[in-house]
Amino acid sequence: MPSLHLEGVSKHFGGLKAVDDITMVVPPGEITGLIGPNGAGKSTVVNMISGVLSLTHGDIRLDGTSIATDRSDIVARRGVSRTFQNIRLLPEATVLENVLIGFHRREHAGVVANLLGLPAALREDRAFRERAHSLLDRFGLDEYADTEAGNLAYGHQRRVEMARAIASEPDIVLLDEPVAGMNDVESDELATIFRELANSGMGLLLIEHNVGFVTRLCKQVYVLDSGRMIASGDPHEVTRDPKVVAAYIGTSKH
Ligand SMILES: Nc1ncnc2c1ncn2[C@@H]1O[C@H](COP(=O)(O)OP(=O)(O)O)[C@@H](O)[C@H]1O
Ligand SMILES: [Mg+2]
């Protein structure tokens, strides 16, 4: 299983250094955390890795091969999958169909990337349907298989997005605030799934606001503040680091 390396990565939007010269590793078989206050640059990191945004400087490598200039469909085909901070499902398609789309990286991902719809071949393929049902089962969603995704509660929609993201059996999965808006029971259920995925060899990058959640799950955590990496390492130590505490207190004031 490959690991993902970011080396000296920056993203500037005009004069704003949204991400400023960061270096980090997402190894296989582990959950790696990326935390930081709102506006720190976390989603921008995910957008650069997944090929949604170009890099201003630096390189991103998957087991030594640069993916820094690859389009998002190519990055997906290379085995890097993601969820979005703002859920992106096809609201009028069923839950099952939304997950079926996730198998598509093995076919021609560009078509689906444009959300033109689900190819008939996939829709009718029994093996894919069975796998989709077992994924839904794992996420406690199978009873909603035929429900329009847009009609599900928010927490359930997040889980559909995750089921879709791992359907292609990616090596690396980037989760942008996957438990935001969920209660403790729901987020604990997901924590169990995240651990299982890591144990199966997948490398997870978990972006999260809830420091306790990250501390419990992650082996290594990185802290971004105003685009800069202000700390990294063991989550228990990092979250006690005065720089990190100050970054969080600084933002809770407004
Ligand atoms: N497409 C964009 N164009 C201009 N500025 C952006 C864009 N995307 C993000 N930003 C800015 O970059 C900074 C980091 O944003 P973001 O990565 O979304 O932070 P986070 O996910 O940590 O809350 C913010 O100041 C945000 O306004
Ligand atoms: Mg964000």
From TrEMBL:
The keyword Zinc does not apply. SUPFAM superfamilies: P-loop containing nucleoside triphosphate hydrolases. PROSITE patterns: ABC_TRANSPORTER_2. One of its GO terms (molecular function) is ATP binding. Keywords: ATP-binding, Nucleotide-binding, Transport. Residues 4-251 form the ABC transporter domain. InterPro entries: AAA+_ATPase, ABC_AA/LPS_Transport, ABC_transporter-like_ATP-bd, BCA_ABC_TP_C, P-loop_NTPase. Pfam families: ABC_tran, BCA_ABC_TP_C. This is ABC transporter ATP-binding protein. It comes from Sinisalibacter aestuarii.
